[in-house]
Amino acid sequence: MYARKNLLRPRGGRDQARVTFVELFFDLVFVFAVTQLSHGLLAHLTLLGAVETGLLMLAVWWVWIFTSWITNWLDPERRPVRVMLFVLMAAGLVLSASIPQAFGARGLAFAVAYVFMQVGRSLFMLWALGRHDANNFRNFQRIITWLIAAGVFWIAGGLADGDRRLALWTIAIGIEYLMPAVGMWVPGLGQSTPQDWRIDGPHLAERCAGFVLIALGESLVVTGATFTDLAWDRFVAEAFIAAFLGCIAMWAIYFNIGAERASHHIGATADPGRLGRSGYTYLHLPIVAGIIVSAVADEIALTHPHGHADLTAVLVIVGGPALYLLGTALFKRLTAPNVPLSHLIGLGLLLVLGVAGGTIARLHLATATTAILIIVAIWEWASLTNRGRRPPAHGR
Questions:
Q1: Rounded distance, CA 14 to CA 25, Å?
Q2: Is residue 1 assigned to a domain?
Q3: Whether residue 139 has pLDDT greater than 80
Q4: What is the pLDDT of residues 276-322, one digit of tens each?
Q5: What share of the chain is helix, strand, coil (3-state, %, to 5)?
Q6: Which of 3, 4, 175, 223 has the smallest number of Cβ neighbours within 10 A?
């Protein structure tokens, strides 16, 4: 009934927690998913469109981060685990292809693909763990109970339409996001604790950093593709430069200090499960969402640089960087005594810019947000470098 061979990752070796090629191959599906999300938001820049895209973003992130936890425990070099990942990739392509019409004709396809990935992967874990990890086996009994309960609402939503679909899917994603916060409590099975989630912290840190790179890469693709199709004048050139420098600033804000320090911290802590849950499972969501919204903002600035920004444009152009800074600030707070002052100042400047945004041209508004991101990146780098607080390189 259960796997005879042990499919768990070996622990303790220098290279045994590395991110494998098959994991990176799996991530390619989510390059497509992130692109679909940004294009979907751009095509439906309304309050309802933002809510719907946000819900789909929650689902895409959840299915990806759950798989990353799975490959933290299982060894992707083992053939059954690779086959499982390939099957999930196929379902992920269906999921991603359904995103533009998830609240239309392809709602059921999206729901079925999502539930298949969530429940099917958990069933595989039960099969793999049954003879080899009794404690985690019990955790996945709890997890699959919650996922099946949420799956009922996903499928029901896929069969419904309009507001009923949105309501049912909101309940479904709410169930899934509540699950880790309450320790997957199930009557008769009890509650798990973060101490039960024995993970390799640096592996999870590297996986989440990789997803941030996916989102940043998609932002560059959107900028490059849009720039290619436009007539090149000084306004388009300014918007292109602002978008490119903004992407670099986002990279620096996350990778220059925060990602490396957090990886070192989660590798050294006695309770990596707690940091994995809060810092990576939850707090990376606003970071990725901020990049996706910023990619939409870059396209708006490139294609419509002239004229004052309306409320929608202000919310997108200012809101994307603000969401990103908020996410990185909260993430860095987990491994530092205080929220970075540079991030707080940056959020304050973005708030002021947002209030005045309706009187500023879209191009100038986008340029100003990029300038704020650059200030934050340089400020944090200079401050921590001067104080000698740069984290040790990973692996040292």
A1: 22
A2: no
A3: yes
A4: 888 899 999 999 999 999 999 999 999 988 878 889 999 999 999 99
A5: 75, 0, 20
A6: 4
- What is the DSSP track for 186-217? BTTTB---GGG----HHHHHHHHHHHHHHHHH
Among 294, 211, 207, which Cα is nearest to 249's? 294
Question: Could you write out the DSSP letters of every residue in 231-250?
Answer: ---HHHHHHHHHHHHHHHHH
Q: CB of 299 within 8 A of CB of 270?
A: no
Cβ contact 285:241 at 8 Å: no
Amino acid identity at 309: A
pLDDT digits (tens, 9 = 90+) for 7-47: 998 876 666 668 999 999 999 999 999 999 999 999 999 99
Q: Is the pLDDT of residue 393 over 60?
A: no
The conformational region for residue 223 under phi > 0 = left, psi -120 to 50 = alpha, else beta, is alpha
Residue 117 · residue 71 · CB < 8 Å: no
What size, in residues, is the chain?
396
Cα 219 versus chain centre, distance = 14
Number of domains in the chain: 2
Q: By C-alpha distance, which of 145, 208, 196, 197 is closest to 175? A: 145
Residue environment code for 182-195, b if the CB has 16+ CB neighbours within 10 A, otherwise e: ebbebeeeeebebe
Kindly state whether residue 370 falls inside one of the protein's structural domains. Answer: yes
Whole-structure pTM value: 0.92
Residue 8, SS3 per DSSP: strand
How far, in Å, are 106, 267, 369 from residue 161 at the CA level?
Answer: 11, 46, 38
What distance in Å separates the CA atoms of residue 118 and residue 115, rounded to the nearest whole number? 5
Helix (H/G/I), strand (E/B), else coil: 186: strand
Give the amino acid at 346: G
Number of H helices, E strands in the chain: 14, 0
Cα gap 373→136, rounded to integer Å: 42
Distance CA 152, CA 141 (A): 17
Question: Are 159 and 231 within one domain?
Answer: no
The tokens 């320090």 sit on which residue?
A: 261
Spatial neighbors of 248 by CB under 8 A, at least 6 apart, are: none
Residue 150 lies in domain: 21-192
Are 115 and 160 in the same domain? yes
Question: What is the spatial distance between Cα 346 and Cα 322, in angstroms, rounded to a whole number?
Answer: 8
Residue type, 52: E
Within a domain: 182: yes
| pLDDT for the residue 395 | 36
